Every structure is written in structure tokens, then in C-alpha cells.
Amino acid sequence: MIRRDKISSGTVHRIPDDFRNVVLRNRTIHAIWEDITPLARNEWICWITSAKQAETRERRIRVAISKMSKGMRRPCCWAGCPHR
Fold this sequence. Notes:
By secondary structure, the chain is an all-alpha fold. It has 4 helices and no strands. It is 55% helix and 0% strand.
């Protein structure tokens, strides 16, 4: 059972509050988040936090949730987390 008040971060990145809150609000997305690898979590976190504008970041959060709900486990068409 997944605890609704806990969420795993990546191996390097701490999940930001705005993204964390969206993931925690959706039981299905939360389960997917806990099932993906720490590296995959890092990539989602880094993709979202690398946005330079607030509007882009908000859009990336929406896109991430949509893609994860369709089975995508890592961001697509992105060079990847530069921290690995």
C-alpha cells in the first residue's frame, strides 16, 4: 500500500512541491511514480525544473502527468538529465 503522505524523490533531485502535490493528488500517477526507477524520476524532475519560465514549467507538469497516465515512464525527446 502506498502512503498518501509520502513520495519518493530521484537519486539526485528532490521532487519540487508543485510537482509533488500533483502526483500525490492522483492515486494512479502516484503508483506509477513509485514504480518507476529513481533515474526515471530524476529525468522527470529535471525536465520539469529545467524550464526557464513558469508557464513552461506548469505545462511540463501537465504533460508529464498525461504521459505517465498513458504508460510513458521517462520523458521523451529530451537529451536527459545532465546530472547523470
